[in-house]
Amino acid sequence: MRKNFGAKPFLFPQPVMIIGSYNEKGESNAMNAAWGGIVGMDEIIISLGSHQTTDNIMTNKAFTVSMADVDHVAACDYVGLVSGKDEPRKMEKAGFTTTKSDFVNAPVINELPLTLECEMIKVLDGLILGRIVNVSADESILDQEGTISLEKFAPITYDTVGLKYYRLGDCVGKAFSDGKALK
Ligand SMILES: Cc1cc2nc3c(=O)[nH]c(=O)nc-3n(C[C@H](O)[C@H](O)[C@H](O)COP(=O)(O)O)c2cc1C
């Protein structure tokens, strides 16, 4: 037996993206966004309502997407609860510091180790389509070969059913490989 839940946004794992942007004064902001994902080798789409971040992206045509991780759960949730429109000390209260991206006019959040640096391509009915022009990663999440390693980096995923955050789990297989056994 299967139970029907109707039309719900239940897709697992859902990303927890922390979007970095600058306002008109060049001040950093960050917000939490779960509704979106990668749509090609170098494109990302995010559904954004009316936020300080949305205004900032329209101004600069650029943004960063860092992944929330286990070490920064409260800070990442906080930037999804409070708007930079209401709290000028939002970044400070989150404990986030930033460095300007070398590639786009948007801030890289120093505390989050993996960041996609993006330029806005266009807005499609509330959806921001961006091009990833660079990915930067803190050395702490690289393995001996210099590759980003999920053994060293612990991103969290958003549980849209229970409204909770979970850490991603263990490696359970190899893509484009394990299925060969069934050919
Ligand atoms: C788990 C979570 C996911 C969220 N996902 C989105 C989203 O995908 N799109 C959106 O517009 N807002 C989303 N929000 C709400 C914004 O993060 C929130 O309104 C934030 O305060 C906006 O900040 P800003 O006005 O400083 O840009 C989410 C919040 C949380 C906690």
Structure description:
With 183 residues, the protein is mainly β. The chain has a single domain (14-182), classed as Pnp Oxidase, Chain A. It is built from three helices and twelve strands. A hairpin with a 4-residue loop joins strand 11 and strand 12 (164-167). It is globular, with a radius of gyration of 17 Å. The model has no long low-confidence stretch (mean pLDDT 98). The structure holds flavin mononucleotide. Flavin mononucleotide (FMN) binds next to strand 3 and helix 1.
Blueprint of the fold:
Layout: E1 14-15, E2 17-22, E3 28-33, E4 36-38, E5 43-47, H1 52-60, E6 62-67, H2 73-78, H3 90-94, E7 98-100, E8 107-109, E9 114-124, E10 127-137, E11 156-159, E12 164-167
Antiparallel strand pairs: 1-11, 2-3, 2-6, 4-5, 5-10, 6-9, 7-8, 9-10, 11-12
Brief synopsis:
This protein has 183 residues and is mainly beta. The chain contains three helices and twelve strands; from the N terminus they run βββββαβααββββββ.
Q: Note the beta-strand portion.
A: 25-35%
CATH third-tier fold name: Pnp Oxidase, Chain A
Ligands in the model, by name, code or SMILES, are: flavin mononucleotide
Assign the CATH superfamily: Electron Transport, Fmn-binding Protein, Chain A
* Morphology call: globular
Order of helical and strand elements: EEEEEHEHHEEEEEE
Helix segment tally: 3
Radius of gyration over C-alpha positions, nearest whole angstrom: 17 Å
Percent helix: 10-25%
**Given this structure, which CATH class is correct?**
Mainly Beta
Largest sheet: 7 strands, antiparallel
First and last CA, distance = 30 Å
Number of domains: 1
Mean pLDDT: 98
Low-confidence spans: pLDDT under 50, at least 5 residues? none
Q: What is the CATH-assigned architecture? A: Roll
Which oligomeric state applies?
Answer: single chain
